[in-house]
Each structure stands twice: as C-alpha cells, then as structure tokens.
TrEMBL record:
Belongs to the bacterial solute-binding protein 8 family. It comes from Actinotalea soli. Residues 67-342 form the Fe/B12 periplasmic-binding domain. Keywords: Signal. Coiled coil: none annotated. The keyword Signal applies. The keyword Signal applies. It holds the Pfam family Peripla_BP_2. InterPro entries: ABC_Transporter_SBP, ABC_transptr_periplasmic_BD. This is ABC transporter substrate-binding protein. Residues 1-34 form the signal peptide.
Amino acid sequence: MTTTRSPRPSTTAGHAAVSALAIALLAGCGQAVSADEASVTEDGAAASAAALENCGRELVLDSAPSAAVGMHPAQTELLLRLGLADRLAGQAQAGAQALPGDVADLAEDVPVIGDVMPPAREDLLAVEPDFVYSPTTYEFTAEQGFASIEQIEQAGAAVYVATGGCAERRMSGSVADLFTDLENLGEIFGVQDTAAQLVEQGQAELDEVASAIADVEQLRVAQVYVEGTTLSAIGAGVEYDILQRAGADSVYAPDQSAFDDFFAAPITPESLAAEQPDALVFSVYDDMHEAATRDYLTSTFPDMPAVREGRLIAVSSADVFPGTLGNISIVRQISEQLYPDAF
C-alpha cells in the first residue's frame, strides 16, 4: 500500500473516518488563542528563515507563511490555536469534523475546500496557498485527483505533513509526535512561545493521567475496528501508544507477527473471543457507526468480559489522526473509562 490509510468503509463519510483510524481536538484542551508577537515582525513574517526535515524532505521557508491551508479540521484547529487565523487561506475536509466551539468562530471567513474528502487539485490550488499542512500523505495522492506534493511545491507552496503521518512513522508513531509538530509550526510561523505553551499544556495533561493510574491493576484491552461485519485488530502506531499511555495491557502489540507490515490486521470473531479482553476500544466516525459497532460487539461476544462489564469504549476516529490535540485528550478519555476510581 502506498498511502498511510486503511481500511476504508464504502461510504464517503466512512472514508473520512477510517482514514483517521488508518493513519493514524477536543475543546477540552482549552488553550487560549493568541499570537506570539514577540517573534513575528510587523508584516507578519518570521523573524528568521525556518529550515527542517519533514517526512524525509528538506523544508525551507524564507519567511512565515501568510496563506496557509489546514488539510483537516484537526490541522486547522492547531493553526487557529497558534493564533494564525488571519493567515489561513483555506480549510479542507471541514465536513469530516466540527471545529471546537472556542475556535470555530475564528474560521468563519476561511474558505472551505472539499467536504469530507481532501480537496481536488484545482480547488486547493485555486486559493493560492503558500503553506499546506496535512495529517498524512494520503491527502496528496494524485491518483485520487488530489494535488501531489510536487504539484503544490511547483505552485510555490511549502508542504508539511504531521510527523505521525509520515509513512516511516506509521508503525511507530506516538502521541509525542504532536509536540514535534507544534515545535516545528512555532518555528515556521514565528510563534514559538504560543507553541511552547500548547506543548507544556499537553504534556501536563499526559503527566496527570500517568500519575492517576500509576498504581492501577491493568486491564487487558483489545483495540478493534468494525465496518459492517468486518473485524480488524489495531496493534501498532499512535493507536497503540494511546492505549499504553491510558494504562492498558494491550491484547495486540507491535511485536506480534500480524503487525509486522501494517498497524491493522483482519481477525476472526473466534480469535478475539479467545482473548477474553476486559475492555474493547473502537473508533467511530458518527453516531450511526457507533450504534452499529456496539450492536455487533454485544451480539457477537455476549460472554466476553468487556461486554459483560460494559467496557465498550468508543472514541472519535478523528482523534487518532496524526498530529491532533485529540491524541492527548483521547488518552484521558480511555483511561477514565478503564479506571474511573483513579480520577
């Protein structure tokens, strides 16, 4: 597979959701939106050029971008929280996920390009971006009609892919990849102080969860994805790291042969039933998908401890997108449902 997404449902909405699962923003992060004016010149340009490596490419910017596009609401949110609303030229895949209420108003006048899918090549280039920020490399699949990285660069824009969305990181991605992205974005846009505040806040939330569950007796947790009656296990990537940080004893792990080449693997209901997990974590892309998944799990595994004890934990598939604040909030969400007495 040449992209970083899989598996996918048959519907358009499903595609947007599973792309989150496969790659791999809640307002609860609560970071105030402000510009770090001390590191920005009067015309909004960065005080110095930024140079860094991203997904094996060298990225050099002579000045801070002034026409950025967030290729997913999670990326748009990060740009807004960095105080960059006036430097947004477009927001893509806006139909896939609503922006948190505390920043949504800031994007009211930002053109929407694409709905739940990445924008077509001509739609993206029409807003004349100088910086395109994406969760994965999938958004640049020319075969899908999207603008390739090369085409965007030829149009004069820089391309940044979330660290966890780089192909080489898909199997070993971690929640901390978000902090790398924030530090890089702070450098690129000259808003280092605001980026540092977001990093500090995110790390503090992770530390708080770790402290709360330090002495719990770990539950065995299986992370799965259900589409119809197709069942997949998730055993690597940022999804695995999220479970570890939430205090789970993961049924599926990167050292298992099923995950030698990809973070997800098809499994049979019989094999999952044999594991007898204490809890099941599954990602969903809307209320209907959650209801269908819960119905499948409860009817298929009535005697499983996870079902008997009511530990069926649904998480938003958008929160497993690489480089999202949801990567942090989902750790707390899962941990609180696994160990409610610890919080």
